[in-house]
């Protein structure tokens, strides 16, 4: 009997034929990492294989010694009895799907992925496979994300209509912050954008990778300077909004850029006055159309809402199974 190609274990997906894990939730001897968000990329593994950008991002976040050994993915690799290939996922800078092939079967572990073009990373690449492992972060029919350009237009309209109030935008440090900045620049906003110190290193890295973010200035000014800001956009990680840092600003408009802002109750709970529905994940229509485009023999579902997608698969005569992996959460900051 052929050995299974990938199996779920408490620490994450494991490949017996290659003796490695994909995005493990605890330290392992050998880890293949899809992208740099902390619920997928953790420190402490014996060896890590990832794209160069993901390895750089992990070093920025965890320090240069985040792993015993590291290897940049630079083309198809033989690992044990498997062939491994990385393909762009369209989620954040350096993000990749990992295709594992052995014994005539190919499984694609997509990690987190998005189908809408963004200047901050390479677009998603559909990969033919026998088994497609999909996230299910927004896997409910209610989640249909609007055009992000429309959401940015809302932000700019608010800045224009309330010029005396600085606009503080919550955005995760890796991917979302840079996407919001790039969208603002694409919309013609060329004024300085102020960023919280927690965003500085990752914004600097994106700029070094050739992603134009324009005039960025530190939002670490004192209370007098902060209260003097007018018609300003300030971007910070969501955690900063629960700190004394916010109190430096005079009557700010609190905003948050996330796919979850489609749920108005979430916006109210966070005290968000201006919710911006901007996501780095597929929504329901994008998820189901991706499955139809790839047309795998089997669909494995993880990282989110499995029930609705399982039901959709059954209605469309598709074989599907929930993986029930633990350790994956809402996007980390």
Strand content: 15-25%
The stretches of 5 or more residues where confidence is low (pLDDT under 50) are none
* SS class: alpha/beta
Q: How many strands in all?
A: 19
Distance between the termini: 44 Å
Mean pLDDT score, rounded?
93
Name the CATH homologous superfamily of the largest domain: Ribonuclease Z/Hydroxyacylglutathione hydrolase-like
Q: Quaternary status of these chains? A: single chain
Q: What's the gyration radius in Å?
A: 21 Å
Shape summary:
globular
Protein name: Beta-lactamase
Organism: Thioclava dalianensis
GO molecular function: RNA endonuclease activity
InterPro entries: MBL, RibonucZ/Hydroxyglut_hydro, Xnuc_lig_assoc
Structure keywords:
333 residues, Xnuc_lig_assoc, alpha/beta, RibonucZ/Hydroxyglut_hydro, six-stranded mixed beta sheet, Beta-lactamase, globular, 24% helix, Metallo-beta-lactamase, Chain A, 2 domains, single chain
């Amino acid at each position: 009997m052929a050995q299974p190609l990938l199996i779920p274990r408490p620490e994450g997906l494991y490949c017996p034929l290659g003796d490695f894990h994909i995005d493990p939730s605890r330290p392992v001897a050998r880890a293949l990492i899809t992208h740099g968000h902390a619920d997928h990329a953790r420190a402490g593994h014996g060896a890590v294989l990832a794209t160069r950008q993901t390895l750089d991002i992990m070093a920025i976040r965890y320090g240069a010694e985040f792993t015993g050994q590291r290897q940049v993915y630079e083309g198809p690799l033989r690992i044990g009895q498997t062939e491994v290939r990385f393909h762009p996922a369209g989620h954040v800078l350096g993000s990749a799907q990992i295709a594992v092939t052995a014994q005539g079967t190919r499984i694609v572990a997509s990690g987190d992925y998005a189908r809408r073009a963004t200047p901050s990373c390479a677009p998603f690449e559909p990969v033919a496979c026998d088994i497609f492992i999909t996230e299910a972060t927004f896997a409910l029919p209610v989640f249909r994300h609007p055009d992000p350009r429309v959401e940015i237009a809302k932000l700019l309209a608010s800045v224009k209509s309330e010029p005396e109030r600085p606009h503080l935008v919550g955005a995760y440090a890796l991917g979302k912050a840079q996407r919001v900045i790039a969208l603002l620049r694409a919309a013609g906003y060329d004024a300085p954008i102020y960023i919280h110190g927690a965003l500085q290193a990752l914004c600097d890295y994106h700029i070094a990778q050739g992603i134009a973010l324009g005039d960025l200035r530190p939002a670490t000014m004192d209370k007098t300077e902060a209260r003097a800001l007018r018609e300003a956009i300030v971007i910070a990680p969501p955690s900063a909004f629960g700190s004394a840092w916010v109190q430096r600003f005079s009557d700010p408009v609190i905003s948050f850029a996330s796919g979850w802002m489609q749920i108005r109750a979430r916006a109210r709970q966070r005290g968000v006055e201006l919710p911006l529905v901007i996501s780095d994940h597929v929504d329901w229509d994008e998820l189901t159309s991706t499955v139809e485009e790839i047309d795998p023999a089997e669909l494995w579902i993880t990282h989110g809402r499995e029930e609705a997608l399982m039901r959709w698969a059954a209605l469309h005569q598709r074989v599907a199974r929930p993986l029930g992996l633990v350790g994956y959460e809402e996007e980390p900051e």
